[in-house]
Structure formats: C-alpha cells, structure tokens
Amino acid sequence: MACSEPGSSRGSKPIQANDAMRKPRILLAATGSVAALRFGNLCHSFSRWAEVKAVATGGALHFLDRASLPNDVILYTDEDEWSWNHMGDSVLHIELRRWADIMVIAPLSANTLSKIAEGLCDNLLTCLVHAWDYSKPFFVAPAMNTLLWSSPFTERHMMSIDEQGISLVPPISGAMAEPSIIHSTVMACAGPGISPWEPTQADAALSKPRILLAASGSIAATKFAHLCRSFSGWSEVRAVATKASFHFIDRASLSRDVILYTDEDERSRWNTTGDSLLPIELHGWADIMVIAPLSANTLGKIARGLCDNLLSSVVYAWDFSKPLFVAPAMNTLMWNNPFTQRHIRTIKDELRISLILPLTKNGAMAETDEIYGAVRRCLQSRFPRGHVAGI
C-alpha cells in the first residue's frame, strides 16, 4: 500500500504548521467493527501529544464507548453533519478537512472500505474522505472477519484506495492491527513535524535506545510480534523467547531487523574457555528490558532466583540500575494464588522490577499500547531529548 514501509508515503507531504509551536492535528475515525471497542485507547495514544478530533459512523456507535474517550476529544457523528440549516452555514466535513493535518480510520470496516473505493459519500466520514486533500497523510487500519478480508471484492477495493494514495496499516488475516502499531506507523510514515518524537536528521547520528524484549509461555505471546514492531521503528530491538512461548509466537511475523534468541543460542554460543556468554552480552547491550508476557512459571523463577534458561539467566545477571518492566499474563485463578501475590511483591519490592498491569481482567496481560506507553515514558524521563535518537 501507499505507506506500508516508513517514509514511503506516496503523495504525503510533511506537515507545515503555520505556528511552529502548535500541536499536530489528527482526525481519528471509527467505522462499524467490533474493533471499534479499542477506539478509546487509540484516541488516548494520540491525544498525549496531538490535538485530536474524532468521527464515528452509525455502525461504530454500536461498539464505541463514548465514556472511554479523552475528555478533550470531540466526537462527531452523522447528526452533526446534518445540522446544517441555512445558506452560508458551515459544512462540517469541509471544516474538519481543513482543520486536520492527518486522518486515520481505525477500524475501517468492509462496508466503509467499499464506499471509499467506489467514491460514495452518504455519511459524515465518507464525505470527509471524498473531500480530503491527498497531499496530507491519510491512514486506514482495516478490520473484518477472515472471509470478508479474503473476498475478491476486498482485494479490488484495497487496490483502489492504494491508487488514491491512502496508506495501509495492515491487518493480520483481517483482524485490525494493534493500536500501538497504528500509533507508531503513523508517526514513522507521516514525515517530519507529525510528532514531537519524530527523529530529525541530526538525531540520525545519535544512538537509538536498545530494548530487549522477552516472551514467556502464555497465549498472550501471540501479541509479541506486534510489540516488537511497535518498538523497532525507533529503537534497536533484540528478542528472547522461552521454549514454551514458541507454542504461540509466529517467527515469520517478527520484524526482519529483530534478532530472536532462544535457549539453543545460549547453549551453542559457548564452546571453550573465553567464549562469550549470551546472557552477559545481552545484559551489557540493553538499555531497558521488557518481559511481555510474563507467565506464572517465569515469574516464580525470577522471584526465587532460578536461572535454568536464557531468559531467567539474563534476569539473574541484570543490572537493576537499568529499567526492567514485566507484563504478567495468566488465568485469574493463577493470578489470585497466594504464591503469585508473594512473587509479585518480591520482584516489585526487592528487585525493583516495574509492573505493567492491565486496567481490567485479573491476570490478563496489559494491552500492547499500554506496555508501549509505559516504556516510552520511562525512556523519555531517563534520556534527555537530543541525547538518544527518537526520544
């Protein structure tokens, strides 16, 4: 698609704000998909550093919780578009088109995709798209079931919007990309000026932060590739995976520039006296470590000081003056077990490991955009702006 790789946005020019100090203006839109349940998270991600306005179709309102939106985000619907009364009254979709520096539709349903591809404009959102200035960045994150995604109609419609210069944030078999992926893709592709975190040419000469990501045996490891991609756009990423995590990780979905280490690598690296030790190498290389997901088993090993695999050996050798984050993931019964609570207290109080807990669902891993945000804030406070590229 038009911007499937950072920096390749066709027809998209860097945002030139009249006032260099004003925040970028981002128009977020949601259409009728169950993925609209995550629209609030997406709005929060962008509103930390940008002015955000939102548009929702009638279908999106079946899933979108208005109370989950940031207080300063205005949500527009078709009713607002049809509030025009007299000649000379402003037209909402024209106002929003002029206001926005960038537009993002996430989720983009099959129905709205087809409307955009065929040039229909029967609601506020499609009127906006029809009137959009395509010299400004425009992203879509499709969301639909696998059968719809595989339909020849969808393929044809995707080709059509690509020709229009609309940038794609690819789904996984139809499922919408993680909010953190959408967030990082927009920042990486939109050009200088879109975000206060966008690296400049001067930053290119600086070192990128080095992040060691690790996954242990939990079904939440299915999200590990998404997490790697969200960080690899602006940092150096290496990954560690336990044997149990391979039941859930698709290696082919990892970013090409992310090196994945396993227990086999630790065993094969050392042959004779003087050979380097992989846990020590990784400990020395990384600025920060993140274990997501952290299973009950690996949590217990860390809390009790066991080191019987690569991941637990890295933790055992870790320099705790450097940040180490964990995002636990287990079923509710295991989460509420007294052993788990004791282990959590140990790693938090004695080892000073930072916990990233979900807002809901006891034991469920935090959303990837919550993990991304926690690590990003830590790096920003740890490294002054201009010291490390992308921070």
From TrEMBL:
One of its GO terms (molecular function) is FMN binding. Belongs to the HFCD (homooligomeric flavin containing Cys decarboxylase) superfamily. One of its GO terms (biological process) is coenzyme A biosynthetic process. Transmembrane segments: none annotated. Residues 25-182, 210-377 form the Flavoprotein domain. The keyword Flavoprotein applies. It comes from Prunus yedoensis var. nudiflora. Its cofactor is FMN. It is an enzyme of class 4 (lyase). This is phosphopantothenoylcysteine decarboxylase. Keywords: Coenzyme A biosynthesis, Decarboxylase, Flavoprotein, FMN, Growth regulation, Lyase. Pathway: Cofactor biosynthesis; coenzyme A biosynthesis; CoA from (R)-pantothenate: step 3/5. It holds the Pfam family Flavoprotein. Its EC number is 4.1.1.36.
